[in-house]
Amino acid sequence: MSDSHISTRVIQTVGISTSLILSGVVTACSVIVVPRLLESPTPLLLRQWDNMYEQGKRRVGPLAIIPAFSYLYLAYNEHTAAFPALWKVNAYTTAGFLAAAIGPYTWTVMRPTNAKLKTKAAEASMLNSTDEAVEVATLGTETAHKLLDFWAMLNLGRAAVVASSGVLGVWTALN
């Protein structure tokens, strides 16, 4: 087995593994963490969501770069091969863009909900009394609990985008 073939397999493994692990982490936030947060009083819910959001922003976004570059490298590698398979170039390119799409998806689809939750979290943290924080956090038609539930549904969309990247990467590598 040539060094080139081994390095291709390593990059395939890194891209596929990272995108599928990332999809699992994002899914876990919606199906495991959020239901537990929804059991909490509003001020605690908002504080914990804000902490989860900040940790995710620091770790998940940058982690999405790994599969994106892995798939784009594989597309380039296939493109420059002696007998390139155009469908593989297109599939790896698509997988790379899907992996990177977690950023634009968050920015365009989730930003309004994120902003509302961040505002409610800031309002709740400024108040000393738990009762006052509950009152402020539930004013208007959108309660913190409803917003967080909606956020979890939107977050599943992010997971689906990254999972699609991983599944496409697996399919392309196996064919």
UniProtKB/TrEMBL annotation:
Its main location: membrane. GO terms for cellular component: membrane. The chain crosses the membrane at residues 20-38, 59-76, 91-110, 156-174. It is found in: Membrane. It is a multi-pass membrane protein. Belongs to the anthrone oxygenase family. This is DUF1772 domain-containing protein. It comes from Oidiodendron maius (strain Zn).
